[in-house]
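Section 5.1 Outputs to date
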Amino acid sequence: MLKFLSRVRIEFNALDPRTASCMEFLKQCNTSKAKHSNPACQLQVKRRTDDHPPQITVTFLNGVEEVFDATNTPAQTITDMILDKGQFLETEQMFRQAGQPWPIIIPHEEILQPHQPPATKVRFLFWGCG
């Protein structure tokens, strides 16, 4: 998960009963597998003393920042959203590096065409009798 991120900021009040998602997400970020996937990712924890709701802010490698309300969003859902967006960004980067336009625009008439399996070349071999 961290391989797609440059920074993670987790904010919560330790006395707030709504911090479960933040704590679980922090635990996921601190695993050796996560840390090895991107050692350069900055992990910041801000312990608040006010009643601000728990939140997780992530910055993707391309600079896009996303803020998650950790009050009602489970840590696994946040992780899944990060992985989905990260894979999308990875695909976009592959297309751009290959000199292909992004996003891919599929003509409407192609979408409406019925699916046909790829054509295969059939070779017949005849053995002579004689």
